[in-house]
Write a structure and sequence with these properties.
Shape: globular
Radius of gyration: 19 Å
Mean pLDDT: 91
Strand order of the largest sheet: 1-3-2
Number of strands: 3
Helix content: over 70%
Low-confidence stretches: none
Order of helices and strands: HHEHHEEHHH
Number of helices: 7
Length: 158
């Protein structure tokens, strides 16, 4: 394997791991589990109702993790589940959830936006363009991977 490529991906992964760790620390300080913060953040970011399936697709979290987190948030009074249609239920903020969003989540997001305050417009555009380019290339690579799940299941059954 090319040492330069390995070095780049290792550096990228280390940075990404640290960012993930910082979000974990933020969720702990704000009094949420990681998955709760992610879901609350998504509800604010998308400024609409989301289904559990949509959250799973956007985050890669397991169905069980999303379901458990939504149930905890529902018990806390932050979210409500809509009627089931087409095997999906919409998640939306309750009044308490909207207040939580205004008091905790949105200020956090505004602070994050502030991290880019001293970046030039060109730096921001370059940063976003490169992230999108990486995401798109990674998506293509993942789609081309062979599906080894059936082979692994067979190995575990013996």
């Amino acid at each position: 394997m090319n040492t330069e490529k390995t070095s780049t991906i290792r550096r990228f992964n280390r940075i990404n791991d640290e960012i993930t760790s910082l979000y974990h620390r933020a969720s702990t300080k704000l009094g949420f589990s990681d998955s709760e913060l992610i879901i609350l953040y998504l509800l604010c970011s998308y400024d609409k109702e989301l289904t559990q399936s949509c959250i799973i697709d956007l985050t890669g979290m397991s169905k069980q993790t999303v379901n458990s987190s939504v149930r905890r948030m529902e018990q806390a009074g932050w979210v409500a589940l809509g009627e089931r249609t087409n095997h999906r239920r919409v998640i939306r903020f309750t009044k308490a959830g909207e207040e939580l969003s205004r008091e905790v989540i949105q200020p956090f997001m505004e602070r994050e936006e502030g991290l880019f305050a001293d970046w030039t417009k060109e730096e921001k555009e370059t940063f976003l363009s490169l992230h999108q380019r990486y995401r798109d290339a990674l998506r293509r690579m993942v789609e081309m991977l062979p599906d080894r799940r059936s082979r692994n299941l067979g190995a575990n059954n013996s």
